[in-house]
Amino acid sequence: MRKLRLDWQGYFAVDDKTIKGKVEDRAGVFKLSMPQKDGTLKPILTGQAASVRTRLVDFVNSGGYPEIKEQIKKGGCQFRFAYLYTKEDLDAAERALYKRYTPKLNDKSAVPEAEDVEVNVN
Fold first, then answer.
1. 122 in a domain, yes or no?
2. Which residue in 60, 75, 92, 98 has the most C-beta neighbors within 10 A?
């Protein structure tokens, strides 16, 4: 199995100012996570975007993602991201992250059919 090394950035607070200050307008994968009672962070959504910055800002500001926006409003939501360069790697990384976490806000039918790869999750 191919290994795909992700250069993770974050954990950062999910807010407009932080996103615009930390994330470039580039393609990549991301994780939105919520704190748990034991102090760990549990991914509630994983995905990919042609512009990670735009997608994350949309989660904060748009009415098109009510479940995600509700989780962000609860407070403590954090994000991580890693830039990638090819559609093949984006699809494979998104699939691997979904399979690893099965986040509650992901739509299973939207997970791309892609090569199974091993990714570093941290």
1. no
2. 92
Q: Cα–Cα distance between 26 and 85 in angstroms, integer?
A: 9
* Total domains in the fold of the chain: 1
CATH code of residue 70: 3.40.1440.10
Residue with tokens 């993602």: 65
Side by side, the strands of the sheet bearing 9-13 are 9-13, 78-83, 28-35, 41-49
Residue 109: what residue type?
A: S
| Domain range for 39 | 2-107
Closest CA to 47 of 88, 103, 3: 103
Please give the C-alpha separations between residue 17 and each of 35, 57, 75, in angstroms, as whole numbers: 21, 9, 15
